[in-house]
Design a protein that fits this description.
The chain is 29% helix and 18% strand. It is of the alpha/beta class.
Length: 196
């Protein structure tokens, strides 16, 4: 009997597209945590969310809830920004600390994955996105930070833009960094056939 050996082809894992802390608290004028500029980061998050939904990529939404005046679950400020409200088919993780890994359910999901890959977009680059990239690095997970789909409030004497650039350079030490154009091109090439 002849045996034909087919080459083993290991399927690359689909990246989980993580939308971090897209909450009203960060865009409500006059709130201490709010950012002044809503573009280009918000438009790029919209593009990424539309792409991920169209191509049926796994999507995870993260929300920070604290037992203090800011990001308090009892206030409307902790709610999702309307256009980023999760759909029933999308994952939702809540936590009280900046890193997405502080959500126990997310940490459990990642422990049951071989070679997870995460795309990180959202708020803030100097807080939750940086903390998540660090935690991913220490777990030997691959993360891709989308620098122009994130933003930060001004830190110290720096502007919001300067703070975001500084955070991006810190994140670059622990994560791959890209922009929305590069990410969508890569996903389009790498993930051919993920959705019809």
């Amino acid at each position: 009997m002849n045996i034909i050996r087919l080459p083993l082809q290991r399927q690359r894992p689909l990246p989980i597209v993580c939308f971090v802390d897209l909450q009203v608290e960060y865009i409500a004028k006059g709130r201490p945590l709010a950012v002044d500029a809503n573009e280009p980061w918000m438009g790029n998050c919209r593009r990424l969310l539309a792409f991920a939904r169209e191509h049926r990529l796994p999507i995870a939404h993260f929300r920070q809830l604290r037992r203090e005046a800011y990001l308090n679950a009892a206030t409307d400020y902790a709610s999702w920004i309307d256009e980023f409200r999760p759909r029933p088919s999308e994952m939702i993780f809540e936590r009280s600390m900046p890193s997405c890994y502080a959500a126990q359910a997310f940490a459990a999901v990642t422990q049951n994955m071989d070679h997870p890959v995460f795309v990180i977009a959202g708020l803030t680059s100097t807080g939750a996105c940086l903390a998540t990239a660090l935690d991913a690095y220490h777990r030997q997970h691959t993360s891709l930070f989308v620098a122009d789909a994130s933003w930060s409030p001004a830190i110290g004497g720096a502007s919001e833009e300067e703070s975001n650039v500084f955070a991006t350079e810190l994140i670059r030490q622990y994560s791959d960094v890209t922009n929305i154009k590069g990410l969508l091109e890569w996903l389009s090439k790498e993930q051919v056939g993920i959705a019809s």
